[in-house]
Design brief:
Elements (H helix, E strand, L loop, with lengths): L11 H8 L6 E6 L2 E6 L3 H13 L5 E4 L3 E3 L11 E5 L9 E3 L3 E7 L5 H14 L4 E6 L4 E9 L6 E9 L4 E3 L4 E3 L17
C-alpha cells in the first residue's frame, strides 16, 4: 500500500497545516478546516491510553499513539489518542493513516476537549466511516462506544451508542476484546458536563 502523503492536497489550508511548526509539548490537529492547538495531556489521560493499548492484543492489532489520520474530504487531520487497525493493514510509511484501514479510534476527554471529542470529532469520524469510536471520559467516569457510522459531511453520525460507567467492562466486539475499565481514574476537580 502506498503512503497517504502521496495523495494530492486539494485545500491550501492542508498544505499550510502540514508545514506548521508547533512548539515542543503541544499537539495540533486540523478539524474541518480549523487548526486546534492543545497542551500536553494529564497523567490520568496517559495512563488510560496505555491501559487500553495493553488490553488490545498486539498479535492481531496495531495500536498506534500520536498517529495522524487523513480525512481529507473533511479537511481534517485529527490525531486520536489511539488508532487501532489489523496488523499489516496500514501503509508502510507516511504521516497519515487512511480511514479505510482503521477499525477503532480512541479519544480520552480532557478538561478542554469535551465538546470536540463528543461533538466535532464524533461527526468527523462518522463522516470518515470509522467503524468504531470510543470516547473515554475521565471527567464523568464513563466510556461511550459509537458504532455503525452513517451519513456524510456535517450530517454524519453513529447509529449505535453504548455508555458504560468506569468499573464495568466495555465490549469491543470488532476487536474481540472486552475492555476492562476498573483501573481508569477520574480527573480530580474536573467540572461535570452533560455530554453525550
Amino acid at each position: 500500500m502506498t503512503a497517504v502523503d502521496d495523495r494530492p492536497t486539494t485545500h491550501p489550508l492542508v498544505a499550510f497545516f502540514e508545514e506548521l511548526e508547533v512548539p515542543e509539548g503541544f499537539k495540533t490537529e486540523l478539524l474541518r478546516g480549523e487548526i486546534v492547538v492543545m497542551a500536553g495531556p494529564d497523567m490520568v489521560h496517559n495512563r488510560i491510553v496505555q491501559n487500553v493499548q495493553d488490553q488490545i492484543p498486539s498479535d492481531r492489532w496495531e495500536r498506534l499513539q500520536t498517529q495522524d489520520v487523513g480525512i481529507l474530504e473533511e479537511i481534517s487531520e485529527p490525531q486520536p489518542d489511539l488508532v487501532v487497525l489489523e496488523l499489516d493493514a496500514g501503509p508502510e510509511s507516511g504521516r497519515l493513516m487512511p480511514t479505510e484501514v482503521i477499525t477503532l479510534l480512541v479519544e480520552v476527554v480532557s478538561r478542554t476537549s469535551v465538546d470536540r471529542d463528543y461533538g466535532l470529532k464524533r461527526n468527523i469520524y462518522a463522516a470518515g466511516k470509522i467503524p468504531a469510536y470510543l470516547i473515554i471520559d475521565p471527567v464523568m467516569g464513563q466510556c461511550v462506544l459509537l458504532t455503525e457510522p452513517a451519513g456524510s459531511g456535517e450530517d454524519a453520525d453513529y447509529a449505535v451508542q453504548r455508555i458504560t460507567k468506569f468499573g464495568d467492562p466495555v465490549p469491543l466486539d470488532l476487536l474481540g476484546v472486552e475492555l476492562g475499565t476498573d483501573r481508569f481514574r477520574k480527573l480530580p476537580d474536573a467540572r461535570p458536563h452533560s455530554r453525550p
